[in-house]
Amino acid sequence: MILIAIRPESESHSGNPGQHNFEQLTALKTVNFESIRGHLTSVESPEDTFEEQTSLLSSSVLEWGSTISGIFGVTGQEIFTADRSFPVGSAVQFPLLKIMWFRLSLLAFAIPGIIAMSDIDEKFLQEVMTRELAKEGLQVERVKLLKLSPFDTVGTVFGSDRRRAEMEIFFKSGETLKKSLIIVDIPTDERADIINKLGLFEREINMYKHMLPAMDKYLHKFQDDYLRNKMWLKAYDMKEFTRLIIQDVDYLKYYKKNTYEGLDMEHSKIALDALAKFHALGAIMKEKNIVDMKPFDLSVGQKVDRTEWYAKIFQQFAKSIRSHWGAEWEPTAKYFEEKSSTIFHELTEMSKKDVSKFNTILSGYFYIDNMYFKYGSAEHKDPIGLKTMIFQNAFFNSPALDLQMFMNTSPEPELMIDEARRDELVHFYAQKLIEYLKKYGYQKNFTVEDFLLEYRRTELLGLTNAISFLGDLYQRNSDTEVADVYFVESENSKGDFTQKGLTNPAFIKLFFGIDSIQVDSVFLDRVQEAYNSDLPCSRRVVRVNHVDVDKQEDSIYDVSNITLHGELQNGDKWNFSLRALEVAPDGFRRTLAQETGIFDKLYLVHTQVLPKMKDLMKAAGDWSETLFLDSIEAKNGSYLVFRTPGFGWSQPGVELVPGFPDLVMAFRNLAKWHAMGAVLVEKDQIPGKELFAERLPMKRMNQSFTHFLKMLAEVVRSTWGRKWNRLAEQLKDSVPQIDGKIRTIFNRSTEQDAFNVFNFGDFHWPDLWLNYGVSDAYVTEHPIAFKFSSFETSHINTPATDLHHVTYSTLNTKTVLKHKDYLVEEVYYPALVRYLSKFGYGGRPLTLARLKDELRRTELYAILTCIMRVQAEIEAKESDDWAALEKTWTTGEHKTNMNAMHHRRFTDAMKPVMEYAKDRNIFGKGDESGSDEDSNSKSESESD
User: Fold this and answer.
1) What torsion, rounded to 10 degrees, do the Cα atoms 441, 444, 445, 446 define?
2) Which SMART domains match (predicted)?
3) Is 49 left (phi over 0), alpha (psi -120 to 50) or beta?
4) Which terminal residue of the chain, N or C, has fewer Cβ atoms less than 10 Å from its own Cβ?
5) Quick check: helix, strand or coil at residue 170?
6) How far apart are CA 636 and CA 419, in angstroms?
7) pTM for the full model?
8) What count of other Cβ atoms lies within 10 Å of the Cβ of residue 330?
């Protein structure tokens, strides 16, 4: 998903001062709001008029919502909706009453802050500084208070009021020091009840009292890293749970960037480096049990039911799209409208802590408004450090949640809409996190790929953060009159409201965050260029006249079959077929694609592995047909478009039962694929090796194997007859051992003497593209060539796993078992040796004895694969039951229909396999080899 947003350059007021000049806003440029920001932070003079003070405070109220937005982006409107003590309702709809009440409310906020200043005096400051400076061996004589002023406008941070105390410290040695600090107080106005209910101040005190000092202490072990880019400030004093005294960012020479301009690449990398360091230390605090994480169990957003609010904000967004963009944006409007009924539930599920994954303490408010940068020069062009101040939403969860907030709210617009640079930042953070975890001694395994999967899983959260935060940002730049949008929401409201930040056309046009393939003129030009690249002039396409798109949504992807109709240079008509696979925009299909990493594999294979295989073929002088489809266009995490083969090629249905000639072709071509893969593995040219270490997530795969084995044991016992009872018991007894044995099989790839190839994965005949002939006059009974297209289960391991898939992925098990040895010894192995030599393999050779040994060691995997594949073939569903799959995925409980296993075709296919398993003692209680023959073969292999 690519979230793209833009901040308005300027706004013009004509007539209604709160009305935007939309023509200027669509200029799509970044601009300076320095004058507005200056106004928001400049009021300190007691001589300001009542009108000036209320005007100023009305602007500042708009910023409250951002502070407790946390993971879901709670805004000021929601806060005031939650607090029913405000006199809001139908009466507020009358303009005069509304304005009068609004001003009185603002004055009520201001008075407690003014009164609170009186409790900060020189005696209090001297006590704080005496305790703090004594730690450094300094003795304080007295403290003189020079100035007490607001750190920012009252209400800028909803959960606290912040002031700066500037003082002069006199030491007993006769020396003096001018210093300042920040005093953070819990508000005493109408906000107090909500703050206490949500535990905002209590959470922040816990961070400054327990978590941050523990991190600081642990970091002392790493002196080279102790002072570098720590993103937290030191607390001098605190009073639970009403006051916090911390370092002053200004005194430390850390400065805030302009919120409306956003952060450039350099500032963003400094921020993400600091965040990675913070997250790594948070994980250490948990792993070593240094800090109790219970106070940080839930985010602020997880404590409030916001079903109604999110429905309204998404409905309003859809409404604003329809109002300003017309018919072509109707799908976008419809997406947000439909999403409004489920968004809160989806976000709630997405933000639940998964204890099986990597978690750490989060900032909860990692956003440009909470960032202060230090620079290496006076020009403020070379950031070298970051500090953040607010930790009122700190909680223990996935680090992806902090990154989603940052990436979708804080970078400058030019960076936010640049996919390549966005990806660079995400990878930069992930790599830094892994570096810090290793440096600080984190014991568990966590990889860059693990984080990227989690980041993609939480993209909907990023989208919602962008709507909430950036919509609020646009609104803040409006006239005071629109501020009352946060106050008019009440228990008796009609259910609609207008947040003008969402109706900014420039914001809407570039905001829609789910990238999908667009069959437009730009796309067609790219396709035409790719098609023409290797053709003579007369056969090149000169124009595309018409495009047909047939969409299907019953697979894990949204599948589009695209047919282009046009003309060639020589005047001939031209048809060209493409297939687009798009990651589902939402729902379980999207979750499945992201959490299993299958689309990531597909993308990497098509964009990086297959081009390298083409290079190998070219270098070896091999100009034969490739074993794979050519991709035309791909976008990581979003879609892949590939060219479908022409005449003579087709995808068979499940009714295909391959015969002996088909198997010979398959084994020979698989040898070529494995040889190229072995060369790439040897040369370390397979990207994302950790992603390809498993066929599928091991835990999930083994749960499925266990489930199907239990089912088969029951079917064999109850329906196959008495002669099979012993096997049924063996199957049942094997169930607890499945996970360990399968892990042993796949861990063999890490052994020093292992011969590894790049396995295709699931060799399933209906998924292949088969060629039955090259002309109308010549159509063969058996396919003469095939192409792979799906690489979601590709993995690096022994070639045995692929060979088992070819052998056991058909109902014709009798034929396969009859010819299995011949296919391996006389077809596959000689071809593999020949192709390894052809493509320049220089690693450890694979002997035939070693290959046969590998096949025997992995036979359990072969049988389990056969059970699942044959059952699926018999069931032959037209479409997947996604609701049932989702339940299995979330609960781990399989509810597979057993009818297929009772089918005669299943029994006929599986009995020869089970006879073979009995003869080989695959489910017996022997060692992994399974039989004496295995042991003898093992010795033979070792001698080779």
Assistant:
1) -80
2) CHK
3) beta
4) C
5) strand
6) 10
7) 0.53
8) 14
